[in-house]
Write a structure and sequence with these properties.
The chain has 5 helices and 5 strands. By secondary structure, it is an alpha/beta fold. It has a single domain, classed as Dehydroquinase, class II (Rossmann fold), CATH 3.40.50.9100. Helix 3 packs parallel to helix 4. The radius of gyration is 14 Å and the shape is globular.
């Protein structure tokens, strides 16, 4: 990572480590490692650095969000199932005062009713969902445009 380039935290929540194998009809066959490689290449083309993390543990995700303060210019965040349940992650996103783009591989609005509620989305810059792995690149584009406009 270059000291003169903006750094973006890419954070993935529970079960996203299983991408490629978990419910491929819903989430596709692309692995998280493949998404991270595509993000790194795309970020480089945008003049950004990305730092990718995944955790199945809510507290670890909280710590990573807190740790982004003062180090990162923004966050691309797929909270996974915590999207629909975690007030703590919602409060962390609000508390770090960084632009955060929420991303989901599937269109959560077209799925089960419980997936239509995002506690995190209300405090994010925006939400991108339903475009599979491309959604991460779109989120990075949106975040870069937002940062350039500031």
């Amino acid at each position: 990572m270059s000291a003169d380039r903006l750094r973006v935290l890419v954070l993935n929540g529970p079960n996203l480590n299983l991408l490629g194998a978990r419910e491929p009809a819903v989430y596709g066959r692309t692995t998280l490692a493949e998404i991270e490689r595509a993000l790194a290449a795309h970020a480089d083309a945008l003049g950004l650095d990305v730092e990718c993390h995944q955790s199945n543990h809510e507290g670890a995700l909280l710590d990573l969000l807190h740790g982004a303060m003062g180090r990162c210019a923004g966050v691309v965040f797929n909270p996974g199932a915590y999207t629909h349940t975690s007030i703590a992650l919602r409060d962390a996103v609000a508390g770090i005062a960084l632009p955060v783009v929420e991303v989901h591989l599937s269109n959560t609005e077209a799925r089960e009713d419980f997936r239509k509620v995002s506690h995190v989305g209300a405090v994010c810059l925006g939400r991108i969902m339903g475009f599979g792995p491309q959604g991460y690149l779109l989120a990075l584009d949106a975040l870069r445009a937002h940062l350039a406009a500031r």
